[in-house]
Amino acid sequence: MFRHVLVALLLFCVVAPLQAVEPLRLGLNYPSTGNYKSEGLELRRGALLAIDQINSQGGVLGRPLQLISLNSAARAEKATANVERFAAQNVHMIFGGANSEEALAAGQRARELGLLYFPTLAYANEITGHDGHRHLFRESNSAWMSAKVLGQYLSWHMPNRRYHYISLDDAWGASMEQALREATKSRDRARHGYSKIAAHGARRSDYLTALKKAAASEADMLVIVLLGQDLVQTMRLANDMGLGKRMQIIAPNLTQSIVEQAGPLVMEHVIGTEAWNWQVPKLEKSVEGQAFVDEFIRQHQAYPGSTAATAYGIVRQWAAAVQRAGSADSEAVIAALENHHYRLLKDEQYWRDFDHQNVQTIYAVRVKNRSEIMQDRFKQDYFTIIHRMAGEEAAPGLDDWQQERGDDLTLQ
């Protein structure tokens, strides 16, 4: 009895001071409604797992982390307004978002307020390219990086094909299509046709019109540069039309939640890229990565996707940088992040100093057969990794970045 009381007192002595001090607040700008709400749930789960682990180990600089979440609905204006609200609640950094427009707008406002911004699910090259700045760090890969690994795989295994593109009419859609055209030598728009889908307010008829145009072409490769419900609805229509039987469908940025929403049968054999999935820790022999997978499964009875992993990694990396810097001040954390190499959920990654892009291995994946997926215990083992490219090879080099930036060759 005395032993139990002593243990309880010791735990109280450790936990009570942590609860008594002012927390370090993190702002999660995430879509809890709208086209990307499934991705938003993944972001929140990944972030909370990281925060719980850090707090159980004593917090950061003796202070607990506290998550403040606001719905961005995947809209730039709402995400920007949320940055103002986060600042009023004295957050120390902001992360999240479901598209590149959010990242560009909210990141710029965070910069004006002296706050760090870590976008998620934001792949446009401009984010760490032309529009990059000191207060923005991107953990996820860029369109360029996805295009490089896809382009290499396709040129090796499916050379001399005819492409047709259906792309979102926004910054990510434009940069992804351009990068993939370059990587696959499908630059000739007369031969390799295209359609654009409105960034907001697209209807079923818009997706159908674009797919009918693709079906009428002579293309044997259909690239669907869409995300969220735009991709889900387009894939369902493409399946109804039987396009997957006569064309190889490519969705450059795949996520676990997309396959879940569209359905494994609809997504069978689709090729895309991911920076991480739950099989990667075993592939890369990452002990911490496997621990993350195991704990996520324990809590949610489901595999973590790349979206959850991104949020988890951002929180862990920011917290580690604060610990190294001895301060949560933005400038101190920037200095602690730049050129920092680390291993967390897979092999080595690092934050580049000149553009604040996270350099990491990127994987090309193919969605498995539905019958194979249904044999899995959670019916979530969606992807086969078909190609792997090291981050240094996938990411644009300094010369490419300087050419895009023009005269503005330092982050401000």
TrEMBL record:
Q: Where is the Leucine-binding protein domain?
A: 23-369
Q: Which residues form a coiled coil?
A: none
Looking at the record's lineage, which domain of life comes first? Answer: Bacteria
**InterPro entries given in the database record:** BCAA_transport, Leu-bd, Peripla_BP_I
Arranged from A to Z, the UniProt key words for this protein are: Signal
Similarity comment: Belongs to the leucine-binding protein family.
Q: What is this protein called?
A: Branched-chain amino acid ABC transporter substrate-binding protein
